[in-house]
């Protein structure tokens, strides 16, 4: 079943499954069971973060699944309080320890944090050290805009493999996605259904009814056909399976245009140019 998910080549040759399972806001005490269910459904790409507090649960689920670790693509993200070089390196060690793994498939800077006194360029250079160690297969960023990426291009050696940003029909992000593509950076879409807000839109509902699909499947398929990596989240096995069933239908060109045309610049999360939250 997992083989039905296509992969995308990152700029260093690593292959990432285009559909994954997100663990944002999955309670730590429930994470192992929820991720176990996702793996049973067929997901082979799990997205977590230090900030989520549930890396141990992800690691437990992977370990008890009986699936070869090499078959599961695991992503995590550096927490906002660890942007200094030494802090970042120690945080990465903790992530590996919590996941119970000696390597990570993808590690991201979670936020650029423009207002703090540690520049993300220093953080990225620490990420380059992690990559050079061979303990992470690819490194990338999350919530970076064109000007953040431009600084990395100018001041560091390794180009990010991924930029994980908020994308959904109400925030299509076409310009940033195009910029990522021009620089061989894969776009990952978080909040892919805008926390459910897009599912009641008449255009989404009409397409879903015509295709005999759910609104969520239609929106997730829109992401897939645009070439982004997407990782919906659910605690329900039925919904997990529904979100996984995206590869036996296609949207028409007019459907894609209609969904992209819903863009109204509406975020469900913070603006990367002003967000400076550091967990206490």
UniProtKB/TrEMBL annotation:
<keyword id="KW-0560">Oxidoreductase</keyword>
<feature type="domain" description="NADP-dependent oxidoreductase">
    <location>
        <begin position="19"/>
        <end position="262"/>
    </location>
</feature>
<dbReference type="GO" id="GO:0016616">
    <property type="term" value="F:oxidoreductase activity, acting on the CH-OH group of donors, NAD or NADP as acceptor"/>
</dbReference>
<protein>
    <submittedName>
        <fullName>Aldo/keto reductase</fullName>
    </submittedName>
</protein>
<dbReference type="InterPro" id="IPR018170">
    <property type="entry name" value="Aldo/ket_reductase_CS"/>
</dbReference>
<feature type="binding site">
    <location>
        <position position="110"/>
    </location>
    <ligand>
        <name>substrate</name>
    </ligand>
</feature>
<dbReference type="InterPro" id="IPR020471">
    <property type="entry name" value="AKR"/>
</dbReference>
<feature type="active site" description="Proton donor">
    <location>
        <position position="52"/>
    </location>
</feature>
<dbReference type="InterPro" id="IPR036812">
    <property type="entry name" value="NAD(P)_OxRdtase_dom_sf"/>
</dbReference>
<feature type="site" description="Lowers pKa of active site Tyr">
    <location>
        <position position="77"/>
    </location>
</feature>
<dbReference type="InterPro" id="IPR023210">
    <property type="entry name" value="NADP_OxRdtase_dom"/>
</dbReference>
<comment type="similarity">
    <text>Belongs to the aldo/keto reductase family.</text>
</comment>
<dbReference type="Pfam" id="PF00248">
    <property type="entry name" value="Aldo_ket_red"/>
</dbReference>
<keyword id="KW-0521">NADP</keyword>
């Amino acid at each position: 079943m997992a083989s039905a998910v296509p992969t995308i080549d990152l700029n260093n040759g690593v292959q990432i499954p285009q559909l994954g399972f997100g663990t944002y806001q999955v309670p730590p005490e429930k994470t192992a069971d929820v991720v176990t269910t996702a793996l049973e459904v067929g997901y082979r790409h799990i997205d977590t973060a230090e900030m989520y507090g549930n890396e141990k649960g992800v690691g437990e689920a992977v370990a008890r699944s009986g699936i070869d670790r090499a078959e599961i693509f695991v992503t995590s993200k550096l927490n906002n309080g660890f942007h200094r070089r030494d802090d970042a390196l120690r945080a990465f060690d903790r992530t590996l320890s919590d996941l119970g793994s000696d390597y990570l498939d993808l590690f991201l800077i979670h936020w650029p944090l423009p207002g703090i006194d540690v520049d993300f360029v220093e953080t990225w250079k620490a990420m380059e050290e992690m990559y050079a160690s061979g303990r992470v297969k690819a490194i990338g960023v999350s919530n970076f805009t064109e000007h953040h990426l431009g600084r990395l291009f100018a001041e560091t050696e390794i180009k990010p493999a991924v930029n994980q940003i908020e994308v959904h029909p109400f925030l299509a992000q076409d310009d940033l996605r195009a910029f990522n593509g021009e620089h061989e950076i894969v776009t990952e879409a978080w909040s892919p259904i805008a926390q459910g807000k897009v599912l009641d839109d008449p255009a989404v509902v009409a397409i879903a009814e015509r295709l005999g699909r759910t609104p969520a499947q239609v929106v997730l398929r829109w992401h897939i056909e645009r070439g982004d990596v997407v990782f919906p989240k659910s605690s329900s096995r039925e919904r997990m399976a529904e979100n996984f069933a995206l590869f036996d239908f296609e949207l028409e060109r007019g459907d894609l245009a209609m969904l992209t045309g819903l863009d109204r610049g509406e975020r469900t999360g913070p603006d990367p140019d002003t967000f400076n939250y550091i967990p206490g």
